[in-house]
Amino acid sequence: MQKFSLVLLLIFGWQLAIARPAETDISFSISFTQNQSAKALDGRMLLLISANNEKEPRFQIVDGAETQLAFGIDVEGLNPGEKAKFDNSVFGYPLRSLKDVPAGEYWVQGLLHIYETFHRSDGHTVKLPMDRGEGQQWSKAPGNLYSNPQKITIRPGEKNNFHIELDQKIPPIDPPKDTKYIKHIKMKSEMLSKFWGRPMYLGACILLPEGFDSHTDARYPLIINHGHFPYTFGGFRPEPPDPDLKPEYSARFDVHGYNRIQQEHAHQFYKEWTGPDFPRFVIIEIQHANPYYDDSYAVNSENLGPYGDAITYELIPHIEKEFRGIGKPWSRFLYGGSTGGWEALAAQVLYPDEYNGCFAACPDPVDFRAYTVVNIYDHKNAYFVDSKFKRTPRPGFRNYLGELKATLVEMNYRELVLGTKSRSGQQWDIWEAVYSPVGDDGYPQRIWDKMTGEINPEVAEFWRQNYDISYILQRDWENLGPKLRGKLRIYCGDMDNYYLNNAVYLIEEFLKNTSTPFYDGAVDYGDRAEHCWNGDHSRSNAESRLRYHQMYVDKILQRIEESAPEGADLTSWRY
Fold first, then answer.
1. What's the pLDDT score for residue 221?
2. Among 318, 385, 416, 470, which residue's Cβ finds the most Cβ atoms within 10 Å?
3. Cβ neighbours of residue 455 under 8 Å, at least 6 residues apart?
4. Distance between CA 191 and CA 565 in Å, rounded?
5. What is the pLDDT of residues 508-518, one digit of tens each?
6. C-alpha–C-alpha distance, residues 101 and 70, integer Å
7. Burial level of 329, CB count in 10 A (0-12/13-18/19+)?
């Protein structure tokens, strides 16, 4: 019997050896020519590998199952013709090493995400990718060097050595053009310029009301739509939908022709905006891309600088002066979704006297006891459930059925390939850059070890005291409560893809039990609604997310009527 078992074990082991793919011997080198840059360059060199040619590899590195392969290394002072080398030791996503890439045919591409040197006023010198008008998108950033995809064959049992030359440069982006209704401004921020040690700018895309030019005596309330970097004001289309538009399928919403639906809603908004019954507001979308991300999160930060103050005390007064805003706190309102939802809520809480109400939809984590699915104060590890014997990954992204698309460790490893020291320009890194104290090297201190997921409790405590909105409200309600009464409205789908509803439950638990005063706002949930739900129970998520600009108008008007001081201008803008 023992002999028979041994034979089975040997056969089974032999079968496993056959089934397991052999490691491949692969290496790459990447360089650029003097034609692309005559000087040495700093940055993140990326090797991108795809098993298909549906799109360039640089556009296929995502969190979902359809992702292709990426490997990254930092380069400093890389000279023209000098080779950046990729071997089995280079960290990759989702495969950890080149040795794990199976033999076969692939399309490969190289890209250098270029860094600049900043000498900040806090005494630190850092190397970061300055935004160049694209909203911190490494795959599209003007000036970045890249190669056209080339087809290769990786052969088993051979040394596979490949060279890639970066012979292309991403061109500059043309600035958006002003129209009758949409204007674009850019202003130098003295506060941010001082912090970063070079001229730094804030911008805004501005939607003007119907009759702005003819009603020159009118002064307008200001509605601030927070969110990711806008190239121009989105969701506003004077032209009817293009009848020749080729329908595109939205995998996110499982809707065919979603691009036409977007145009229909944008044109409908134009008709409502210019119609006789729509209140005459000025709406702005802020451009505050920075060296870490496509927006600043609209708060002061040790790593990003005083963006909260710069937006509130420099940019907004500038816009109100130039575009005839009323210019009083009772006439300013905030709204946004996701990142913009957090920004709207944070700006209202941290600047309670400057704004008269916020509408925060699907906000990024507003309570760090539920930093998505991580309690940064009690959990030991962000990537895996705390356990002596199990190693269960924490989830990162789901659909409305709860089906898992990515884990936290996978999402963070993708960022680590795209950039070290919180420089990936992605979601987890920007939270870290905004919320963390500055490290000794001038870069953000890690909330957790990016490789292991081990949480740093000292950094977590810094986050709590400065950016945990729920904690700040509880800690300071005696002072904040009277200033925020009636101003806080939060909306979230209860199947948010990123588990953001978990934090909303916690902040709601506090708010609904407030007294002296009662918060007198609203917290609402969409049944089985995914990310971007904004409080609309009558439409699908795919449609309601296209109606943010119209969603809160009635509530804003009601708030103005209830709270405007005696003698306030309630008529000049109601023509």
1. 98
2. 470
3. 374, 376, 379, 380, 381, 382, 447, 448
4. 31
5. 999 999 999 99
6. 11
7. middle
Question: Peptide bond preceding 329: is omega within 30 degrees of 0, i.e. cis?
Answer: no
Span 41-61, average pLDDT: 97
Structure tokens, 131: 């935004």
Q: Is residue 485 part of a domain?
A: no
Residue 222 near residue 326 (C-beta atoms within 8 A): yes
Residue 60: strand, helix, or coil: coil
Same domain for 133 and 75: yes
Closest CA to 501 of 525, 519, 522, 521: 525
pLDDT band, very low/low/confident/very high, at 4 (cuts 50, 70, 90): very low
Length of the chain: 575
Domain end call among 110, 136, 169: 169
Q: Is 321 in the same domain as 236?
A: yes
Percent helix, strand and coil across the chain, each rounded to 5? 30, 25, 45
Maximal CA-CA distance, the chain:
99
- Let me know whether 105 and 136 are in one domain: yes
Q: Whole-angstrom Cα distance, residue 89 to residue 97?
A: 7
Residues 59 and 201 in one domain: no
Q: How many CB atoms are located within 10 Å of the residue 362 CB?
A: 31
In the chain, what percentage of residues exceed pLDDT 70?
Answer: 96
Rounded to whole angstroms, the Cα distance separating 181 from 209 reads 7
Backbone Cα Rg of the chain: 26
Using the structure block, give the residue that is written with the tokens 């145009």.
263
Q: What is the pLDDT of residues 204-249, one digit of tens each?
A: 999 999 999 999 999 999 999 999 999 999 999 999 999 999 999 9
Domain membership of residue 541 (yes or no) is no
In whole angstroms, what is the distance from residue 164 CA to residue 31 CA? 7
For the segment 119-140, what is each residue's pLDDT rounded down to a tens digit?
Answer: 999 999 999 999 999 999 999 9
Which class for 405: exposed (0-12), middle (13-18), buried (19 or more C-beta within 10 A)? middle
In tens, the pLDDT along 56-77 reads 999 999 999 999 999 999 999 9
Q: Is 139 found in the same domain as 41?
A: yes
Is pLDDT above 50 for 17? no
Q: Is the pLDDT of residue 22 over 90?
A: no
**CA–CA distance, 293 with 131 (Å, rounded to integer):** 8
Residue 142 counted as domain residue: yes
Domain presence at residue 543:
no
Q: How many domains does the chain have?
A: 3
The answer for residues whose C-beta is within 8 angstroms of residue 420's C-beta and 6 or more apart is 44, 74
SS3 133: coil
Give the range of the structural domain holding residue 297, as residue numbers without chain letter: 182-367+469-477+548-563
Nearest CA to 570 out of 333, 335, 331 is that of 331
